[in-house]
Amino acid sequence: MILHKGETLFRQGETGPLYRLNSGLLKIVRVHEDGRQFVVNLIVPGETIPHHSLISPNPYFGTAEALVTCEVDVLPANEWYREAESSPDKMRAIALQLQEKLRMMQQRIDQLTEVAPAEKLRKLDAWFGAYIAPVSMTELLTQDEIGQLIGVRRETVNRLLRAGIAAQSSSRPEGPKNS
Predict the structure, then answer these.
(1) Phi, psi of 47, deg, nearest 5
(2) Cβ-based neighbours of 120, under 8 Å, separated by 6 or more
(3) Which of 42, 62, 156, 162 has the smallest number of Cβ neighbours within 10 A?
(4) How, if at all, do strands 26-31 and 37-43 pair?
(5) Phi/psi at 104 (5° precision)
(6) What letter does residue 15 receive in the DSSP assignment?
(7) Predicted model pTM
(8) Looking at per-residue confidence, does 135 or 66 come out higher?
Protein backbone atom coordinates (compact mmCIF):
# COMPACT_ATOMS: atom_id res chain seq x y z
CA MET A 1 0.00 0.00 0.00
CA ILE A 2 1.08 3.56 -0.63
CA LEU A 3 0.69 6.12 2.14
CA HIS A 4 1.14 9.79 1.24
CA LYS A 5 2.64 12.51 3.42
CA GLY A 6 0.31 13.37 6.28
CA GLU A 7 -1.82 10.23 5.97
CA THR A 8 -2.41 8.03 9.00
CA LEU A 9 -1.50 4.33 8.97
CA PHE A 10 -3.11 3.50 12.33
CA ARG A 11 -4.42 5.33 15.38
CA GLN A 12 -3.51 5.08 19.03
CA GLY A 13 -5.71 2.57 20.89
CA GLU A 14 -6.89 0.71 17.79
CA THR A 15 -5.99 -2.91 17.13
CA GLY A 16 -5.19 -4.47 13.81
CA PRO A 17 -2.47 -5.89 11.61
CA LEU A 18 1.25 -5.34 11.72
CA TYR A 19 3.02 -3.35 9.03
CA ARG A 20 6.41 -3.42 7.35
CA LEU A 21 7.76 -0.10 6.11
CA ASN A 22 9.53 -0.70 2.80
CA SER A 23 10.29 2.93 1.97
CA GLY A 24 9.59 6.34 3.43
CA LEU A 25 9.47 7.55 7.01
CA LEU A 26 6.77 7.39 9.66
CA LYS A 27 6.43 9.25 12.92
CA ILE A 28 4.68 7.73 15.91
CA VAL A 29 2.73 10.30 17.89
CA ARG A 30 1.28 9.74 21.35
CA VAL A 31 -1.92 11.72 21.93
CA HIS A 32 -2.57 12.72 25.55
CA GLU A 33 -6.03 13.01 27.13
CA ASP A 34 -5.95 16.81 26.78
CA GLY A 35 -5.28 16.49 23.03
CA ARG A 36 -1.58 17.37 23.13
CA GLN A 37 0.54 15.33 20.74
CA PHE A 38 4.07 14.17 21.40
CA VAL A 39 6.39 12.51 18.86
CA VAL A 40 7.76 9.36 20.52
CA ASN A 41 9.39 7.48 17.65
CA LEU A 42 10.47 7.57 14.03
CA ILE A 43 10.13 4.46 11.87
CA VAL A 44 12.66 3.87 9.10
CA PRO A 45 12.54 1.47 6.12
CA GLY A 46 12.93 -2.18 7.04
CA GLU A 47 11.05 -1.95 10.33
CA THR A 48 7.97 -4.00 11.17
CA ILE A 49 5.59 -2.22 13.53
CA PRO A 50 4.23 -1.95 16.10
CA HIS A 51 7.35 -3.19 17.88
CA HIS A 52 5.50 -4.00 21.10
CA SER A 53 3.22 -6.37 19.18
CA LEU A 54 5.78 -8.44 17.26
CA ILE A 55 5.34 -11.43 19.56
CA SER A 56 1.84 -10.90 20.98
CA PRO A 57 -1.00 -8.55 19.99
CA ASN A 58 -1.61 -5.25 21.77
CA PRO A 59 -3.49 -2.08 20.87
CA TYR A 60 -1.43 0.49 18.99
CA PHE A 61 0.61 2.61 21.44
CA GLY A 62 0.51 5.71 19.25
CA THR A 63 -0.69 7.06 15.93
CA ALA A 64 1.51 6.38 12.87
CA GLU A 65 1.67 9.20 10.33
CA ALA A 66 3.62 9.38 7.08
CA LEU A 67 6.28 12.10 6.98
CA VAL A 68 6.89 11.39 3.27
CA THR A 69 5.32 9.04 0.75
CA CYS A 70 5.68 5.52 2.14
CA GLU A 71 5.38 2.02 0.76
CA VAL A 72 3.95 -0.25 3.44
CA ASP A 73 3.11 -3.96 3.51
CA VAL A 74 0.14 -5.04 5.62
CA LEU A 75 0.94 -8.18 7.64
CA PRO A 76 -2.21 -9.96 8.85
CA ALA A 77 -1.87 -10.47 12.61
CA ASN A 78 -3.22 -14.04 12.84
CA GLU A 79 -0.86 -15.28 10.15
CA TRP A 80 2.08 -13.37 11.67
CA TYR A 81 1.59 -14.84 15.17
CA ARG A 82 0.93 -18.37 13.89
CA GLU A 83 4.17 -18.26 11.89
CA ALA A 84 6.09 -16.78 14.83
CA GLU A 85 4.96 -19.63 17.09
CA SER A 86 5.97 -22.33 14.66
CA SER A 87 9.16 -20.95 13.12
CA PRO A 88 12.44 -20.51 14.99
CA ASP A 89 13.73 -18.55 11.99
CA LYS A 90 10.83 -16.10 12.28
CA MET A 91 11.46 -15.65 16.01
CA ARG A 92 15.15 -15.04 15.33
CA ALA A 93 14.26 -12.42 12.71
CA ILE A 94 11.95 -10.72 15.24
CA ALA A 95 14.68 -10.80 17.89
CA LEU A 96 17.20 -9.27 15.47
CA GLN A 97 14.77 -6.52 14.53
CA LEU A 98 14.09 -5.72 18.18
CA GLN A 99 17.84 -5.71 18.85
CA GLU A 100 18.39 -3.23 16.02
CA LYS A 101 15.56 -1.00 17.30
CA LEU A 102 17.03 -1.14 20.78
CA ARG A 103 20.38 0.01 19.42
CA MET A 104 18.66 2.82 17.52
CA MET A 105 16.84 3.87 20.69
CA GLN A 106 20.11 3.78 22.63
CA GLN A 107 21.46 6.33 20.15
CA ARG A 108 18.36 8.43 20.76
CA ILE A 109 18.88 8.16 24.54
CA ASP A 110 22.46 9.31 24.00
CA GLN A 111 21.03 12.40 22.29
CA LEU A 112 18.71 13.10 25.21
CA THR A 113 21.41 12.70 27.87
CA GLU A 114 23.62 15.41 26.39
CA VAL A 115 23.65 18.49 28.61
CA ALA A 116 24.04 21.11 25.90
CA PRO A 117 21.01 21.61 23.63
CA ALA A 118 23.34 22.28 20.68
CA GLU A 119 24.94 18.86 21.13
CA LYS A 120 21.50 17.21 21.37
CA LEU A 121 20.56 18.81 18.07
CA ARG A 122 23.87 17.82 16.45
CA LYS A 123 23.37 14.18 17.50
CA LEU A 124 19.78 14.10 16.23
CA ASP A 125 20.95 15.59 12.94
CA ALA A 126 23.67 12.90 12.72
CA TRP A 127 21.05 10.23 13.46
CA PHE A 128 18.94 11.61 10.60
CA GLY A 129 22.01 11.53 8.39
CA ALA A 130 22.55 7.86 9.19
CA TYR A 131 18.95 6.71 8.78
CA ILE A 132 17.10 9.24 6.64
CA ALA A 133 19.66 10.93 4.33
CA PRO A 134 19.63 12.80 2.03
CA VAL A 135 16.51 14.48 3.47
CA SER A 136 17.22 16.77 6.42
CA MET A 137 15.24 16.66 9.64
CA THR A 138 14.02 20.24 9.13
CA GLU A 139 12.36 19.20 5.87
CA LEU A 140 10.26 16.58 7.66
CA LEU A 141 9.73 17.73 11.23
CA THR A 142 8.51 20.96 12.75
CA GLN A 143 10.71 22.73 15.25
CA ASP A 144 8.27 21.65 17.96
CA GLU A 145 8.66 17.98 16.93
CA ILE A 146 12.46 18.31 16.85
CA GLY A 147 12.27 19.79 20.35
CA GLN A 148 10.14 16.85 21.53
CA LEU A 149 12.68 14.37 20.19
CA ILE A 150 15.61 16.02 22.00
CA GLY A 151 13.86 17.36 25.09
CA VAL A 152 14.11 21.10 24.47
CA ARG A 153 11.62 23.87 23.72
CA ARG A 154 10.75 24.91 20.18
CA GLU A 155 12.27 28.33 20.80
CA THR A 156 15.61 26.69 21.62
CA VAL A 157 15.45 24.63 18.42
CA ASN A 158 14.69 27.79 16.45
CA ARG A 159 17.67 29.63 17.97
CA LEU A 160 20.02 26.70 17.33
CA LEU A 161 18.86 26.26 13.73
CA ARG A 162 19.29 29.98 13.06
CA ALA A 163 22.82 29.68 14.43
CA GLY A 164 23.43 26.83 11.99
CA ILE A 165 24.07 24.21 14.69
CA ALA A 166 22.53 21.26 12.80
CA ALA A 167 24.27 22.23 9.57
CA GLN A 168 27.65 22.06 11.32
CA SER A 169 27.31 18.29 11.75
CA SER A 170 26.52 17.51 8.13
CA SER A 171 26.96 18.79 4.64
CA ARG A 172 23.22 18.57 3.86
CA PRO A 173 21.35 21.83 3.42
CA GLU A 174 19.48 22.93 6.51
CA GLY A 175 16.05 23.04 4.83
CA PRO A 176 13.15 25.37 5.48
CA LYS A 177 12.46 26.84 8.90
CA ASN A 178 9.20 25.60 10.32
CA SER A 179 7.31 25.73 13.57
Answers:
(1) -85, 145
(2) 111, 112, 114, 150, 151, 152
(3) 162
(4) antiparallel
(5) -65, -40
(6) -
(7) 0.81
(8) 66
